Amino acid sequence: MRLRLFSQEDNEREQKRKQSQLSKGKNMDDEAECYKMWRIRRTIMQLCHDRGYLVTQEELDQTISEFKAQYGDKPSERKPQRSDLIVLVAHNDDPTDQMFVFFPDEAKIGIKTIKTYCQRMQEENISRAIIVVQHGMTPSAKQALVDMAPKYILEYFLESELLINITEHELVPEHVVMTPEEKSELLSRYKLKENQLMRIQAGDPVARYYGLKRGQAVKIIRNSETAVWKIYILSPCCVRLYYNL
């Protein structure tokens, strides 16, 4: 039996084949990562808009193609890198009320990153920010968020929490954040006290999405004519009021 020896041409052909496979795999990874980053940023823009911050319709409607054109389509080459996606928005009712959204490049962030962000916020006189983390935060970083309050209000979300907009899920009823005036009027109309309102936990996903503060009230509109407590009817929906702890 005669063994065929690989020639230099065969070796070059094999190397090209392997390089082609690696390139295809890399391109597929880049495509998936781009899509992920686009979805996360889109949800963040929707979140900012739903909290009352000024976001243009173009930003809300940005397609994956437009995202790639603006930021790049090679995450493996840091085009884009997550820190490129930073967002700064101003509130519709008060332009001085601004908020940063930071996208750290580190998979898990520590206290050093938190201090860097707080320094940036101090320089620009901004007191509120959201941090979008890939895999979490160290215990010291989480404690730093607590220690920085109330001077700096920093919230954090995992990327996995922002791949979809939870408020658009078919099983999540519509939530409407009430103004202090609306809340006072409702309590007065029905002769209620705050401690008579049902509670929604601060860690509730929708409460976190809207950035609800303690004492804020939210109407939850369910597509049902039966509820534990009817406030008023929005034919054919009923509205229930929850009080955030």
From TrEMBL:
One GO term of the cellular component aspect? RNA polymerase I complex
- Which GO molecular function entries does the Swiss-Prot or TrEMBL record give? DNA binding; DNA-directed RNA polymerase activity
UniProt subcellular location: Nucleus
GO-annotated biological processes:
transcription by RNA polymerase II; transcription elongation by RNA polymerase I; tRNA transcription by RNA polymerase III
Can you give the residue ranges of the RNA polymerase Rpb5 N-terminal domain? 31-121
Q: Which residues form the RNA polymerase subunit H/Rpb5 C-terminal domain?
A: 164-227
UniProt protein name: DNA-directed RNA polymerases I, II, and III subunit RPABC1
**Native organism:** Oedothorax gibbosus
